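Researcher: Structure prediction, please.
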Amino acid sequence: MNCFRVAVAWALWCAVIFAQAPDNSVCAACHADQVEKLGASAHSGVACASCHAKHEDYPHPEGVAKPKCEQCHASEVRRWSASKHADARAHGKNAPDCAVCHGSPHELRLTGTVAFRTAIPKLCGSCHGTQAAQYSESVHGQALAKGIVAAPVCSSCHPAHDVLPPAAAASSVNPVHVPETCGRCHGDVRLAQQFNMPRDAVVSFDASFHGLALKAGRQSVANCASCHGFHDILPSSDPRSSINAKNVRNTCGKCHTGAGARFAIGRVHWSAGRREPGAVRWIRVAYAVLIPAVIGFMFVNVAGDWMRKVLPRFFRRKRVAAIVPYTPRPRMRMPLPERVQHWLLMGSFTVLAWSGFALVYPDYWWARPISYWETTWPLRGIVHRIAATVFVILCSAHIIGIVTDAKVRRRWKTVIPRHRDIPEAVGTFAYNVGLRKTPPMVWPHAWIAKAEYWALVWGALLMSLTGAMLWANTFFLRWAPRTWLDVATAIHFYEAVLATLAILVWHMYYVMFDPDVYPMEPSWLTGYSVRRHAAENGSGASHSTGPAGEYSPRPK
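Model: Predicted structure follows.
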């Protein structure tokens, strides 16, 4: 097989080497000047007969249609036909066609040459004079004038055959595609290294709120051109530049009124682990330790609890149950008002997690139903804010109920941490991981419920505060340093990850997968728990407890 491939390659190479140039000598007898021009053009390898029909008839008949470019360049012509230039030409305007940019067929210019590339701004400037003048003053135009051929020209951003208006979805300068267009150069590691450009500009933008929202399809947010300009891109050191230190306030103020009025905007392009603000770095490192530690502890604890309960049943052994203080009478665990609050809290938390993570991961299937509308309607943001408002109202109602109702206050006093919670927690964990043979005393309102409740309180405070800062970002940019918003964004994201994982690993186990309540703890529906008390089974011990409040049997 390899020998056959080598033979085919050799034959093709020989065919190319020994192929004869087209014989245009007959045509040259009458059209010497045209044949001479053809020989120096990009069509030098094309025979006259390939394009000119009825060339063999002499004298040549009149009315023979001239050759069309699509005979050989069908793809390019098809793309041009859908462009803004073709549309303008169809409406009678003076717009360029193939010959304007490439020259006549007999004098076709080679597009791959340095001369052709450097002449593009002047060529486009014959129609777009204002834009060409701005380009010549820009950092790109100045680089091209200095002989840096790799510098972007008009066709680098506006593909020659695919020039479309910015509003067109397929346009390379459509807001959604601007980062991709700029990233062809600024995301190229080789070019960044060669010309000493920042290597993380595109990556840091993609990871920012603007980049994530733009990726989801929201075109109203800032893109590269919103801050740096279009044809008049200038270095930050230039006083005329929109990103000059003195002008950044006005640039950001186009969307965020008053931004930077009291504090400098600060660094915009940064990514995790690279040029990030110090406060954000410490938050990222702290959560990088906290999340695995907390979720790891939860997973080990619930896995041990599950094995302690399931394995004795599987092998038909007598199970050692947890010890619970005696309670003489059954009591409802969740009254109806609290059950309603729990239902709404469960719904709002789920919607918050879904809509929030849909911003960071818009390409996943579960995010598409809500991010699909971003191009025309910011549905994701609206849903997220409505769910956040419901969540805050529920938390406020809970606090008001505790403050104003003595009966509710007495019930919720049971979640106040006590000294006995520490040995209970340590003993339970030690028992679940096999370091202790018997379970510890577990009080009616177990340490598990208390830990989960106060984690919810702490998480709700953090998420509400940081969420309000991000919601009112224009206000905070006017009155506080931008770093505060960077810190709020980091805390909001990492705390959301921690809270979601805690619900999935910890809460869902004790209300669904705990063998004592499987397939579900019904107290959130009926108000009563299925966890049995020591006095019920006559053995002086009960099933081990989960995050129950006042453990009591269902009334008969």
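Model: The two ends are 83 Å apart (CA to CA).
Researcher: Thanks, that helps.
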